[in-house]
Structure prediction request, 180 residues.
Amino acid sequence: DYPADSSYTLPASGTDTLYAQWDPNTVTLAYSANGGSGAPSDQSGDAFSDVTVSDTTPTREGYSFTGWDTAADGTGTSYAGNDSYTLPASGTDTLYAQWDPNTVTLAYDANGGSGAPSDQSGDSFSDVTVSDTTPTRNGYSFTGWNAAADGTGVDYPADSSYTLPASGTDTLYALSLIHI
Prediction:
């Protein structure tokens, strides 16, 4: 080996050749949970080598993990866990978690009456308009919707905004007063 600026004795005749020696850069594949949590640990390796994309699944409330992408907004190249990924020549590449919002439901319960409106579905955390359908109950007047069957929850008048849950189904219950 001849490091730079070292002395080299030329041959008596002809040509000697020195060959460059190379060590690959150590580079990194990083993971971003992109609004979630639980991203896998970074992976390091030699430049241009292949690594296996982590199969660790991050989490995000109200969303389902759909895979990894080279762009945070999903416009890059997509990768799934256990796919092969070629590391860059230098520095760090990042894969970003991709998310789809959960489809969730707002249900209505006539709470002893009949004629409750149909369920409303949408993306988690999105807003829907509370139904203006009026259920009926013999001997009672409908007074509105409430988050608790016994009326101790939050009141939601017709046409008000309701934010859907992260997952599953929320129910609004009809409230009514007895006719005297």
User: Anything to note?
Assistant: The mean pLDDT is 96. The longest strand covers residues 92-101. The two ends are 104 Å apart (CA to CA). The CA atoms of residues 48 and 87 lie 5 Å apart.
